[in-house]
Write a structure and sequence with these properties.
Radius of gyration: 19 Å
CATH topology: Four Helix Bundle (Hemerythrin (Met), subunit A)
Largest sheet: none
Order of helices and strands: HHHHH
Distance between the termini: 33 Å
Number of domains: 1
Strand content: under 5%
CATH superfamily: DksA, coiled-coil domain
Structural class: mainly alpha
Length: about 120
């Protein structure tokens, strides 16, 4: 079970990761411009062929999905901190080892339950 001090350390780390991610997302979207506006400007200024434009657009969408999922993981972990349930496995309700939380502060499951989930997902 994470103690109050380690939970506060994880919370600080999560908040720092969140701020860094939001800053990176804003930068990648061209600051105050939205990603669609940046893409439109690149399209207008580009002399690239359609395949390259399509590839860049697909990369942008994939990056956006990854960033959104990462932000959701951070927010979910912060909500667990706020509710007093940070460090509890969502599946078996056992405490996640401190070493795992240090390595992955957004971990929602112990290694055994995470492995079982990934195995089930790969079979589906």
């Amino acid at each position: 079970m994470p103690d109050a001090q380690s939970t506060e350390q994880h919370k600080s780390q999560l908040l720092a990761q969140r701020a860094e991610l939001l800053e990176r997302m804003a930068f990648e979207r061209g600051g105050v411009l939205g990603r669609a506006q940046v893409a439109a400007e690149r399209y207008e200024a580009s002399s690239s062929d359609d395949a390259q434009l399509r590839s860049e657009r697909e990369d942008g969408f994939a990056m956006n999905e990854h960033e959104t999922a990462e932000l959701q993981d951070i927010d979910r972990a912060l909500a667990l901190v706020a509710s007093g349930h940070y460090g509890e496995c969502l599946d078996c309700e056992e405490f996640i080892p401190e070493q795992r939380l240090q390595a992955t502060p957004t971990a929602l499951r112990c290694i055994a339950c995470q492995t079982a989930l990934e195995t089930a997902q790969s079979r589906a």
